[in-house]
Amino acid sequence: MNWQIEAVASALLLANVWLVARRSMWNYAFGIAAVSLYAVVFWRAHLYAAFGLQFLFLALNLYGLINWRRSMAATGEVPVLRMSRLEKWLTLGGTLKIALLVGLLLHLTTDAAVPFADSLNTALALSAQFWQARRRVETWVLWCLVNLVSVGLYASQGLWFTSAVYAVLLAVALYGWREWRRVEREQV
């Protein structure tokens, strides 16, 4: 049953990210369904940081839905923005601190399979999801990093569908980055 849940979650995630790249509000329906199923998958794989992240993703999906809806221009398009230099530095520092603290916590208190890789990926994904909800172009750089780490992390735990999906998601993230940069230039 695990692989079926993983396969459905993977398909939902692919649809979610493709719709994000296209700046479609429908991404949130697929995102909420995907994170709900991935919570089960990651718990069973002893990837506790990834499991906990699904609850934060759920909250950030709801926040993003509200934020995107409010920001829609009169044309119905979702505008995108660039991160400030301060936002970039705060993101770097915050991501590294979260990764270290969660990694230590998992290492010391759980039977986590790979606590530091899991926590780094979790911190990167949390940052990416937050900036996605805030419609920042640089979210795609973070998603590229998440996807690169995820391929190896999930393959190491035998989560083959998920690993393959993250390889595809890397290509989608590159597409999303290109599209959001194009839209940002056209908005000026």
Task: Summarize the helices and strands and which ones pair or pack.
Layout: H1 2-21, H2 27-44, H3 48-71, H4 85-109, H5 115-133, H6 139-156, H7 160-187
Helix pairs in contact: 1-2, 1-7, 2-3, 3-5, 4-5, 5-6, 6-7
Please describe the structure with a list of short key phrases separated by commas or semicolons.
188 residues; mainly alpha
| Number of strand elements | 0
Helix content: over 70%
Based on Cα principal axes, name the global outline. globular
Q: What is the succession of H and E elements?
A: HHHHHHH
- Spans of at least 5 consecutive residues whose pLDDT stays below 50 are none
> Structural class of the secondary structure composition?
mainly alpha
Determine Rg (CA atoms, Å). 16 Å
What can you see in these coordinates?
The protein is globular and about 50 Å long. The chain is built from 7 helices and no strands. With 188 residues, the protein is mainly α.
Summarize, please.
This protein has 188 residues and is mostly helical. The chain has helices spanning 2-21, 27-44, 48-71, 85-109, 115-133, 139-156, 160-187.
